Amino acid sequence: MVLLLVIMAAGLVPLLILTKGAIWFYTENEKADLQKEVRSYSSIISNTINSTGFLNLQSVEDIQGNNSASSELDTIASVFGGRVIIVDGNFVIIKDTYNKETGNLCISSEVTKCLIEGSESILSNEGYVQIILPIRSKEESKNGAEPKTYISGVMILSYSEKTIDISAQRMARKMWTISTILMAVVVTFAIIGLMRIMGVFRKFRKALERLSEGYIDEKVEVNDFREFSAMSEAVNNMMNRLNQLEKSRQEFVSNVSHELKTPITSMKVLADSLTSQESVPAEVYREFMTDIANEIDRENKIITDLLSMVRMDKSADSLSVSKTNINELLEILLKRIRPIAKERNIEIIFESFRPVEAEVDDVKLAQAFSNLIENAVKYNQDDGWVRVSLNADHKFFYVKVADSGVGIPQDCQEHIFDRFYRVDKARSRETGGTGLGLAITRSVVLLHKGAIKVYSKEKEGTTFTVRIPLNYSK
């Protein structure tokens, strides 16, 4: 109902304003044209009076006897359908085309001002208009001097605007008739349009209710209007994203269960093997216990990485940001990793192009860079190399980790940041990987408002590039 009123108001209010405005404009324009036309006759009247010496006659009888001037004034008055009154310098009415006031005095304030000061006046009352104008004459020239102009009398031009009002009323009736028809059309179309829109709203609401009932695989297809089509597409995209998140959650739970269960199963098998034997040599017992300890370490590493992922999933408020020397941070990490690389004769090279200080969480960032560098060593070839470089500009600092390792297949590169994803599951287990390292690294980079990218080819090595702002802002 409210929407219908809004639509009707949007259509009817401008129509009402337009109708009233058109009537007012027509009336005012016609009145202005009539006034302009009447005023145009003032110069003709002045010329007639001056040329006939109308104001120089000695008596009213003589003036009335001047038939040529008097008849000409009567003609002018009849042309614009009004009345002409001529007042001389003594405030005596010497001509009234209605023949009612001739010979009487006219000493109104407007006439007095006009005769003394030459000011013009326009009076309006109940559809009648009076225009009071001075009559200007020229003195006789003396000794060739230019004649002076003086006010010799006053003319009062009266006319009625009632014909304009009657004409405006006729036009108003026609305009209101047309407006009423247009209003009816607007209301009809508003109701039809509203019913159509409400039908689409109901269709859209039913589709959303189906989603809320749990039918999340159904698509919302409401394409009656462009706006509803866009909303349907947005809802479908959101549901696709939610479905992907649900599948990711289920897969994550499954992966966590599997990863946690595998070491436990191994420990159970080893323990059962020990308990099933009556007399176990010390060497075998020591070997089994060593394997159990390794499985416990593996379980602990998985749990530690899972806890790290949970912390990374929290908001950026979990960051402890401080001014950190990135050069020193990387050198400390490389010093710790170099002994591991040396076991396989892998050379680690550090290139620093300039000193870099940035506002970061040094603990979390160290974990992220450590994951990248350790992976570059783990998945490298013997006698290979790892190159770590650091650079910066006025806004960001850049860390690049490149290696000569086995590389990542093209179809796997978009998944390597997924939790528990492994390119080579067998080798990952051999190297002790949990499949969470790159997911943790990406979370750390995103918490710092940065970006991480990977470039790789199989058997040609892998390069990770990280970009992080120098100044942290939430």
Q: If you had to describe this structure to a student in words, what would you say it looks like?
A:
The strands form three sheets. A five-stranded antiparallel sheet has the order 2-1-5-4-3, with helices on both faces. A five-stranded mixed sheet has the order 7-9-10-12-11, covered by helices on one side. It has a two-stranded antiparallel sheet with strand order 6-8. Strand 3 and strand 4 (128-138) form a beta hairpin. 56% of the residues lie in helices and 18% in strands. Mean pLDDT is 80; it is low at 426-431. Helix 1 packs antiparallel against helix 5, helix 6 (226-276) runs antiparallel to helix 7 (282-312) and helix 7 (282-312) packs parallel to helix 11. The longest helix is centred in the N-terminal third of the chain and has 51 residues, at 2-52. It folds into three domains: 2-140 and 147-167, PAS domain (Beta-Lactamase), CATH 3.30.450.20; 244-310, Helix Hairpins; 321-469, Heat Shock Protein 90, CATH 3.30.565. The chain is α+β, with helices and mostly antiparallel strands and 474 residues long.
